[in-house]
């Protein structure tokens, strides 16, 4: 049973259970042994707990054993009269819920996993088992970090750290483990200065010990590499080299070739940043001679590709990067895949290998989409957890109010009933309001995802087909120009869709790239212009991202697509009386065309209207649509204008 100190196991039972990992039939043998009435239930639980510790949570037998432990603990907890037995069974039940949380984590059931963790913490607290309780709190913090709720992860870890620091001499191992975990969290958030301070606490602890025993040297070296990596990230190369060299010395001494290769690769990265390519090459070649597994080999190949790219030896660079890329996909290492793909895209362009560049770009798009979907799941999980917690708190408060009212006399009961009704109405209103806010947050997240649908497969594949056609027709310069615009546009949409506000300059740049791609798709059937009126600094004005794009798309699709003569799209951003307006004008068929009826409005435009209403909080907000008429009252185009909410940096 994890993190609980257990007494020595009976020799006979230990002999029976020790064969568990190797034999599937052991579960049946265990069930028979548990039916032996001569063996006390605490002894049975003790041995089940030991077996759980020896079994991976991914093993199907893990959950079978945990269910056994839970059933025995629950059965005895109901009848246990002695205080010491009640405490033991409570601890085992708490351990059951802690293990159950691991099962739900594997199934990606965030709400049930967190609920199980909270039950475990509550049970340990009820019997004042504060050490065990805080170990679960640490696991809760790690789980929060896995779903990208870094703020709550830090809160949990510091809560546990505060507890263990009350007796620092007795809990040094626990304190160091928490410090190391906090450091890793800070590093993940690119808060490297804070990460370094906690990595150094871990390093100082091991250096202060008179003798390093067990895995102490390994853990010290791991902290040295992590600390060096944070120094590398903030470009403090001397400090980074110092820590990497210390780690390298230990791993060479213990003949740990995998981590020796990692250390050599880290030092090589520093040398590359310093422009010392020859030294970096020697280190990477040394790493290549000792690589034992696909992970370290892939890492070395990618580092060699990076080095050769910096040296402008593009052909060799592409060879190493391709090998590293293939290995990273084989072992499903996303971090290495991202690094290799980014470098391969650059090298392929330099080599004129546009087919390879397109393949890598398509892979990057899928990788970014997968990351964004995962981030969306994590955000939704966070909202669900907050909703469940707040709902539970409200129910507890209501229950407490009702319980208090019953104890009062009739007069107080009448007053209490009235007060309870008022409170109930208030809490009911508050609960509904919270539900609405959570729904709005989830809806906004869905809208952000729908914004990404502007880069739909039809648009992507048409763009790629057109670029490929340019390459086939040997229009390489034009192809590279459009490929750069397409790459930049995709990156902008993926990055900006998660932001609430971006600068007006970024929005304009994204519109330019979008219109350039549309010109290619429509065979240059239209020209465009973007005008800025009464705005001196577009970098200091911030607006919600991608509000204009659906209306521009509509002007192209329904306004000028079927025109024989060349079309014109005019975009205007103007500031009048401290109000920012967006205007799109085309010389197309106007709003009387049958394709421009209300039923044909795109989903993107509907969502944009809702977003604008949500941002402005103005019920009178409207989007003005009108035809442009010539002197003879004939339609010569269309215009849409609306106010955009904005924030001024000043």
From TrEMBL:
UniProt KW Flavoprotein keyword: no
Highest taxon in the source lineage: Bacteria
InterPro entries: Bact_2-comp_sensor_kinase, HATPase_C_sf, Sig_transdc_His_kin_internal, TPR-like_helical_dom_sf, TPR_2, TPR_rpt
Ranges that cross the membrane: 410-429
Protein biosynthesis is among the record's keywords: no
Entry keywords, A to Z: Membrane, Repeat, Signal, TPR repeat, Transmembrane, Transmembrane helix
Signal peptide (from-to): 1-22
Gene3D superfamilies xrefs: Histidine kinase-like ATPase, C-terminal domain (3.30.565.10), Tetratricopeptide repeat domain (1.25.40.10)
GO molecular function, one term: phosphorelay sensor kinase activity
Annotated GO CC locations: membrane
TPR repeat intervals: 221-254
Residue intervals of the Signal transduction histidine kinase internal region domain: 448-526
Full protein name: Signal transduction histidine kinase internal region domain-containing protein
Organism of derivation: Chryseobacterium luteum
């Amino acid at each position: 049973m994890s993190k609980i100190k257990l007494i020595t196991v009976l020799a006979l039972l230990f002999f029976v259970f020790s064969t568990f990992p190797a034999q599937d039939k052991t579960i049946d043998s265990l069930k028979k042994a548990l039916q032996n009435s001569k063996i006390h239930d605490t002894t049975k639980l003790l041995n089940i707990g030991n077996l759980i510790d020896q079994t991976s949570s991914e093993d199907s037998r893990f959950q079978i054993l945990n269910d056994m432990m839970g059933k025995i603990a629950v059965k005895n907890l109901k009848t246990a009269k002695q205080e010491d037995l009640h405490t033991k069974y409570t601890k085992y039940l708490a351990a059951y819920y802690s293990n159950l949380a691991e099962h739900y984590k594997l199934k990606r059931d965030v709400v049930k996993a967190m609920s199980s963790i909270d039950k475990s913490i509550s049970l340990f607290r009820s019997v004042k088992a504060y050490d065990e309780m805080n170990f679960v709190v640490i696991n809760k913090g790690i789980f929060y970090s896995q779903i990208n709720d870094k703020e709550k992860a830090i809160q949990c870890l510091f809560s546990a750290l505060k507890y263990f620091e009350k007796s620092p001499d007795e809990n040094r191992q626990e304190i160091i483990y928490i410090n190391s975990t906090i450091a890793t969290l800070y590093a993940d958030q690119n808060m490297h200065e804070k990460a370094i301070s906690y990595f150094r606490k871990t390093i100082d602890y091991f250096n202060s010990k008179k003798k390093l025993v067990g895995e102490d040297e390994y853990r010290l070296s791991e902290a040295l590499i992590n600390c060096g990596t944070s120094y590398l990230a903030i470009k403090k190369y001397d400090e980074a080299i110092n820590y990497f060299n210390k780690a390298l010395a230990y791993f060479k001494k213990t003949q740990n070739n995998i981590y020796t290769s990692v250390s050599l690769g880290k030092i090589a990265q520093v040398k590359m940043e310093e422009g010392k390519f020859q030294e970096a090459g020697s280190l990477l070649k040394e790493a290549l001679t000792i690589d034992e597994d696909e992970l370290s080999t892939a890492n070395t190949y990618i580092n060699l590709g990076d080095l050769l790219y910096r040296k402008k030896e593009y052909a060799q660079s592409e060879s190493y990067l391709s090998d590293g890329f293939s290995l990273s996909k084989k072992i499903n290492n996303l971090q290495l895949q991202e690094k290799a793909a980014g470098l391969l895209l650059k090298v392929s362009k330099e080599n004129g290998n546009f087919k390879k560049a397109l393949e890598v770009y398509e892979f990057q798009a899928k990788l970014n989409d997968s990351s964004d979907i995962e981030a969306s799941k994590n955000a939704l999980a966070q909202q669900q957890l907050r909703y469940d917690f707040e709902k539970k708190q409200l129910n507890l408060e209501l229950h407490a109010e009702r319980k208090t009212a019953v104890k009062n006399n009739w007069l107080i009961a009448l007053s209490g009933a009235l007060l309870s009704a008022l409170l109930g109405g208030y809490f009911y209103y508050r609960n509904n309001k919270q539900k609405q806010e959570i729904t709005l947050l989830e809806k906004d997240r869905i809208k952000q995802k729908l914004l990404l649908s502007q880069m739909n497969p039809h648009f992507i594949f048409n763009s790629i087909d057109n670029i490929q056609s340019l390459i086939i027709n040997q229009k390489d310069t034009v192809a590279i120009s459009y490929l750069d615009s397409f790459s930049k546009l995709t990156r902008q949409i993926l990055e900006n869709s998660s932001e609430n506000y971006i600068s007006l300059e970024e929005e304009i740049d994204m519109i330019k790239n979008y219109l350039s791609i549309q010109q290619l798709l429509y065979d240059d059937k239209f020209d465009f212009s973007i005008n800025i009126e009464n705005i001196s600094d577009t970098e200091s004005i911030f607006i919600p991202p991608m509000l204009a794009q659906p209306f521009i798309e509509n002007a192209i699709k329904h306004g000028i697509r079927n025109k024989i003569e060349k079309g014109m799209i005019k975009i205007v951003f103007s500031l009048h009386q401290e109000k920012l307006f967006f205007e799109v004008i085309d010389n197309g068929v106007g709003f009387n065309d049958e394709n421009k009826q209300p039923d044909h409005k795109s989903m993107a435009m509907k969502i944009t209207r809702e977003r604008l209403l949500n941002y402005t909080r103005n019920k009178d907000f409207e989007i003005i649509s009108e035809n442009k008429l010539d002197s003879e009252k004939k339609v010569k185009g269309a215009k849409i204008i609306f106010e955009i909410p904005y924030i001024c940096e000043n």
